[in-house]
């Protein structure tokens, strides 16, 4: 029952941390109350992509004639099977984590954990049995859940969060999505593509508010064209569920209106899982719902660490994984580089996809940079034209003085797989001229990055 490392939570922060700890020679245990892989693999990142893939294929069937193929008469789908496929993908991935735990000789402890004083963790299993474990280092990676607003209380039936949105027994004819971050927009796109009438309500002036304004406006235009109704500068004041569906009272810039739908999806962000974890008893400091740590993820109590969505850092799976690896490598005494949170990519998997890293154009201007901005539309891309999907662009932002790549913003099919080029280039402090001299393959979608850089420096060829 004694370990070098105990990890609480098996999401992409927790399980990656446990594997790296085991690789470094630590005797490691991981504690999970539900399913290996946490929210990301079971109820988030992975199954949502499976749903979106089904929607994408369905859209292709409807567009068969555009590719010179015979028209698919009345293309349809079985909604329950679409959901079933998504759940199957999640189950397979969770099983893969179980294999990795066994391969790396990590003890998996199923149950609800609570940290105790003296570097101990108590675990209550499904039968109610309590067992105590001790660890020289305890790493907390308990993740987050759907955030609830007081005026939009989730009942799991008519007012739902992302978990229910992935396993609805029947497809709703209409849906109101409150919040237009990545979660809200991805579900709006999925349900709209499958035929649900979707209305998005966003408090901020633009959807995907953390993205560059050009990206936000372009995606809003594309989603509206696909049939999604989008209301920005709007807020849901109250929701009435007394009837068959829901009635949402929405305050807009021009007045108050009532929206009706079968169901309302609340996608207004996430809340960290820090309650009932024993933090107060142990003395672990928190602030505004987040655990406070230093640059190496040590909490206020020696021997206790925290990573992932319970921190004030970006609530992204890849951030949690990076934090966990950094944490255990520092514990091991390796030479470790601090995470550069200014070079973390963000992705939204709607259609068209959105990906970005670094500063937006507005942020760069506010910081006082003199800019070179380049933009290349996919309408000028040979590969995108051949693919039949030219919706989108690549936008790059450079410091005019030193050539530093300040930001990159992408909208289009497959851009979430391309943003890593900008991440690596920025990490290596690559300049725009170096990107121009790095030969990109033709025809590819990726050469649009080079073309956008060329546009920033007045050397673009294809526009």
TrEMBL record:
E.C. number(s) listed in UniProt: 1.8.1.4
Free-text cofactor note: Binds 1 FAD per subunit.
InterPro entries registered for this protein in UniProt: Class-I_Pyr_Nuc-Dis_Oxidored (IPR050151), FAD/NAD-bd_sf (IPR036188), FAD/NAD-binding_dom (IPR023753), FAD/NAD-linked_Rdtase_dimer_sf (IPR016156), Lipoamide_DH (IPR006258), Pyr_nuc-diS_OxRdtase (IPR001100), Pyr_nucl-diS_OxRdtase_dimer (IPR004099), Pyr_OxRdtase_I_AS (IPR012999)
This protein's record includes keyword Signal: no
Protein name as catalogued: Dihydrolipoyl dehydrogenase
Domain (Pyridine nucleotide-disulphide oxidoreductase dimerisation): residue spans on this chain: 344-452
FAD/NAD(P)-binding domain: residues covered: 3-324
Family stated for the protein in its record: Belongs to the class-I pyridine nucleotide-disulfide oxidoreductase family.
